[in-house]
Inverse folding.
């Protein structure tokens, strides 16, 4: 998933930039290749949280994802803020989307 790997530095930047505002990056490791993911995250500087999938996550959510990467901005209640974001983005593009979502809180 080259696009996922490409956006790791941008996601790390977002995780650091917005941490004082309660914003967190959480990535889902869809293929559960943990060792490979650790190597890639270390190489690209990704320190944000990553979770592995479960059967219920795959059946209940991931089977609806059509593009990789896909990004969702959700509030603390798990509600979607804005649109589903298909494809990779830069830190600047993510910042604009997050700033807009934070205005709606």
């Amino acid at each position: 998933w080259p696009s996922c790997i490409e956006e790791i530095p941008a996601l790390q930047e977002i995780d650091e930039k917005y941490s004082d505002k309660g914003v967190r990056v959480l990535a889902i490791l869809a293929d559960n290749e943990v060792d490979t993911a650790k190597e890639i995250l270390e190489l690209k500087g990704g320190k944000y949280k990553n979770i592995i999938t479960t059967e219920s996550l795959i059946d209940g959510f991931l089977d609806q994802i059509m593009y990789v990467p896909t990004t969702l901005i959700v509030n603390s209640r798990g509600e979607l803020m804005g649109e589903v974001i298909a494809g990779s983005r830069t830190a600047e593009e993510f910042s604009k989307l997050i700033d807009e979502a934070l205005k709606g809180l």
